[in-house]
Amino acid sequence: MYYDDEFFERKPKKKGFNGFTLIVVALIASLIGGSTVAMLVPSMIEYGVIDISKAQTANQSQNNQRQDNASQLQNSPQQQLNVQVNTGIVEAVEKIKPAVVGIVNIQSGLGGFFSNHQEYEAGSGSGVIFNVTGNRALVVTNHHVIEGANQLSVTLMNGEQVPATVVGYDELTDLAVIEMDASNVTAVAQFGNSDILRPGEPAIAIGNPLGLEFAQTVTVGVISATQRALPVNIGGNKVYEVNVIQTDAAINFGNSGGALVNINGELIGINSAKIASSGVEGIGFAIPIRDAEPIINDLIEHGRVQRPYLGIAPRDLNTVPEQYRPNPSIKEGVIIADVPTGPAAAVGLQAYDIIIEMDGKPVDNSVTLRKILYGKHVGDVLNVVYYRGNDRFEVQITLSALPEVP
């Protein structure tokens, strides 16, 4: 048995109400109902079936309430919302900011008609006022900020410009001290303890990125790492590795010499460098203030750093062919390439001796030797282990100051 759809479609339809008829009926019914209600309502109100007094009272009460609210809004005094932000970072910045200055390096050059000497702004950087004695204010900055200057101009927080002169500088650590008149100095930086810094704690950099137009710029980040070794190149040769603080607080050109500050507003580092390679962000470096202090003191007292020296010309052993080594079994160390002078000669060291250890630390190359040596002071005693041929020796050397180059 099956169903034929055509059969159901062909079935005759029954007669009845269609859609239009239903609409007409509904309209007629509503008209009749409405008319009936309209005629009956007055009678129902008259006989009390419907009480309109309560509805009128409720409507009047609502209208009165709206008017009262509008009147109160119009007559009430306008309130202003003041938010006072006084975080630790704000307090730290306000404490150190007056001590941060701009430094302009002015040099002489040839230019114009008849090759007249003209002065020009060779560059700008930042500095930090750290000492005031009488009318003399001392500012620490980077060596590369003041290098080659014929004149220096210091710009204070209030915009006043003051001439300055160089007290001393150290190219190896990229530090310099300059002095100026202290008449308008309102604050000096307090040194913190960079030896106890921990990665993750706040770091605040203050300086003049890209010049005095952006003076007193504040950037905030964290201490990214401590005890980073940054190579120092002098004359195209890597001669030293300086200990630096790494931070992600933005440090740009012109920030050099400015302040790196902790949450207490204490100076913990002198901003010095950044990695400017394409695609690299948030890697800046500062010289720890604890490392900078003895350098600063030497610059104030002597105009240069009294750095200890051994009196040898070191050469990395691994750069010498094995057949020319005095002891081929020794693979790492420093060979004395010339006749020693000074402290080394005084204890009997000779050319071709191989130094393998100093103060209990292995000496792999000349960079390691200098790092150990520059961690000492003039007058310190240094224990040195060396080989002469196959014989091992140990000697005590009293370090003296590096002679000045005439």
List the helices and strands and how they pair.
Layout: H1 5-9, H2 19-46, H3 53-75, H4 88-96, E1 100-111, E2 116-133, E3 136-141, H5 143-146, E4 151-155, E5 161-170, E6 175-181, E7 202-207, E8 217-234, E9 237-247, E10 259-261, E11 267-274, E12 284-288, H6 289-302, E13 308-309, E14 314-316, E15 334-336, H7 342-346, E16 354-358, E17 361-362, H8 366-373, E18 381-388, E19 391-398, E20 400-401
Antiparallel strand pairs: 1-2, 1-4, 2-3, 3-6, 4-5, 5-6, 7-8, 7-10, 8-9, 9-12, 10-11, 11-12, 13-20, 14-15, 15-16, 16-17, 16-18, 18-19
Notes on the protein architecture:
By secondary structure, the chain is of the alpha+beta class. The chain has three domains: 88-181, Beta Barrel (Thrombin, subunit H), CATH 2.40.10; 194-302, Thrombin, subunit H; 308-401, Roll (Pdz3 Domain). The protein contains eight helices and 20 strands. The protein has helices at 5-9, 19-46, 53-75, 88-96, 143-146, 289-302, 342-346, 366-373, and strands spanning 100-111, 116-133, 136-141, 151-155, 161-170, 175-181, 202-207, 217-234, 237-247, 259-261, 267-274, 284-288, 308-309, 314-316, 334-336, 354-358, 361-362, 381-388, 391-398, 400-401. The strands form four sheets. Strands 1-2-3-6-5-4 form a six-stranded antiparallel barrel. The protein is elongated. The termini are far apart. Residues 1-16 have low confidence and may be disordered.
